[in-house]
Structure formats: structure tokens, C-alpha cells
Design a protein that fits this description.
With 233 residues, the chain is of the alpha/beta class. It is built from nine helices and nine strands. It folds into two domains: 1-18 and 65-104 and 150-233, TPP-binding domain (Rossmann fold), CATH 3.40.50.1220; 19-62 and 109-143, SIR2/SIRT2 'Small Domain'. Helix content is 32%, strand content 19%. The strands form two sheets. Strands 3-2-1-7-8-9 form a six-stranded parallel sheet, with helices on both faces. A hairpin with a 6-residue loop joins strand 4 and strand 5. The protein is elongated, with a radius of gyration of 18 Å. Bound molecules: adenosine-5-diphosphoribose. Adenosine-5-diphosphoribose binds at residues 9-11, 14-15, 20-23, 26, 86, 104, 170-172, 174-175, 195-197, 199, 213-214.
């Protein structure tokens, strides 16, 4: 089977009712990144940071995967699909995708502020001030904040390097190192982008652009990939 690597961003989940960050009406219009999504924010006002992510987690509980997520999962019938997502939601999992790397962490997990290897499944429950890990230190969201290293990046680079087909869905490609992953797709790989808006792709190669939202865009992608590669690859 050919390997289809799919890098997803906030636009993938937009039709599930989860707000993107940089569109008009996006989260970063309502909140300042520096106040909720940095280690400095955590040091300055951890209650505010916890509230911000608790709210995101509660919204996620009521969200459902959209037909885009389901289409991505369904592509596993024809391709070795590897999802690399910048999203902290669990909608790819709930849609049935089986290979998912979360570059920026996961809302449904908490981790120790003392030992980053202590990670706990919390589902859709709040993290409250005073909630501690087994070592007695405060729990924090299992999220990669701005200014923090991206521990899953090496794994993501390895996956991108094995792509026969590389598709980006619903990311403004503003945030590095995630945005640079497309550069690791081998020369022979075909490159695809699904987004209703124009996106500057940081690569000097042909990219097949599907200018549509995630649900409709994934439907078109499936049609095109099956026309090119067939169903028995
Ligand atoms: N379908 C597909 N794409 C959409 C849709 C949709 N229905 N609606 C909007 N988009 C596109 C926008 O046009 C934009 O290009 O999704 C993209 C969202 O971009 P951002 O809001 O910048 O989100 P993302 O690229 O995922 O941000 C990367 O930045 O704030 C951090 O850590 C956060 O993981 C996030 C990272």
C-alpha cells in the first residue's frame, strides 16, 4: 500500500464546531496567545490557563467528527494513512483513524509539572487548581505551548519522509516546526492542500490545491486519489 501522510490543522475540525485560531472569529482574536498558551502564562496565572483549556475540553465533549474526519479514516481502506495533526482534539480518533501523531498535545490528557513522563488520561474532565500527579505536583494540560519544544517532531519527520502522497488539510501553515513538515516529503511524493482560503505553502514544488472546506475537500481528494492510484494499491 502507498503511504498517505495527512497533516491536519484547526480547519479540519472547524465543521465540527471547533473554532480555528487565525480566521476571523478565531480563538486568537478573543484571547492573547501570551496569556493562555505559553509557559510564561502558566507561571503568571495558571487559573486562567486551566480555565481556557477546560473550556476547550468541554466544547470538545459535545463535538462530533465531521465527514472530513470520517473520510480520512475511510482512506485506510486504500492507503497506509498516517495522520499528523496539530489539533489537540480527539476527533480523528473518534472518526476511526488508527495512526495519529499529535504534534501539539492532547486535550484529553493531563501531565505532571514535575515529571513530564507522567501523563494521565482525563477524558473531558476539568483540570482544577490543586489537582496533582502521583508526586504531588500540580497537573497541567498535556499541550505544547508556544516556546516549548515539540517532542513528537522527530516522529513526524520520520513519517513525512516516508510519504508517497502528502496532504495538508485546514492549516494556515503559520506555525513551525509543523509547517515545515511538507519539506520532508520525498521528491517523488505528490503534494495536496485542502483549504477554502489561499495558503502560502513553504515549498518550491507543485501542490495540487483543493479550495474547499474539509468535508467537501476530503471527498474530492478521495475521488482524485482513487482516479490516479486506483483502489488496489
Ligand atoms: N475546512 C478546511 N479548512 C478550513 C476551514 C474548513 N471548514 N475553515 C477554515 N479553514 C482553514 C483556514 O482557511 C486556515 O487556513 O483552516 C486554517 C486554520 O488555520 P489556523 O487557525 O492558523 O490553525 P492551524 O494552522 O491549525 O494553527 C496551527 O497554531 O495556535 C496554534 O497550536 C495552535 O495547532 C495550532 C497551530
Amino acid at each position: 500500500m502507498r503511504t498517505l501522510v495527512i497533516l491536519t490543522g484547526a480547519g479540519m475540525s472547524s465543521e465540527s464546531g471547533i473554532r480555528t485560531f487565525r480566521d476571523s472569529g478565531g480563538l486568537w482574536e478573543e484571547y492573547r496567545v501570551e496569556e493562555v498558551a505559553t509557559p510564561e502564562a502558566w507561571a503568571a496565572d495558571r487559573n486562567l490557563v486551566l480555565r481556557f483549556y477546560n473550556e476547550r475540553r468541554r466544547q470538545l465533549m459535545d463535538a462530533r467528527p465531521n465527514t472530513g474526519h470520517l473520510g480520512v479514516a475511510g482512506l485506510e481502506k486504500y492507503f497506509n494513512v498516517r495522520v499528523i495533526t496539530q489539533n489537540i482534539d480527539d476527533l480523528h480518533e473518534r472518526a476511526g483513524s488508527t495512526s495519529i501523531v499529535h504534534l501539539h498535545g492532547e486535550l484529553t490528557k493531563a501531565r505532571s509539572t514535575k515529571d513530564p513522563s507522567l501523563i494521565y488520561d482525563i477524558g473531558y474532565k476539568d483540570i482544577l487548581p490543586g489537582d496533582t500527579c502521583e508526586l504531588g505536583s500540580q497537573l497541567r494540560p498535556h499541550i505544547v505551548w508556544f516556546g516549548e519544544p515539540v517532542p513528537m517532531m522527530d516522529k513526524a519527520v520520520e513519517i513525512a519522509s516516508g510519504a508517497d502522497i502528502f496532504a495538508v488539510i485546514g492549516s494556515s501553515l503559520n506555525v513551525y516546526p509543523a509547517a515545515g513538515l511538507i519539506n520532508y516529503a520525498p521528491e517523488k511524493a505528490s503534494l495536496w492542500l485542502i483549504d477554502p482560503k489561499e495558503v502560502q505553502v513553504p515549498v518550491d514544488r507543485d501542490v495540487e490545491v483543493i479550495r474547499k472546506g474539509a468535508s467537501e475537500g476530503v471527498r474530492v481528494l478521495i475521488e482524485k486519489l482513487l482516479a490516479i492510484y486506483g483502489t488496489g494499491n
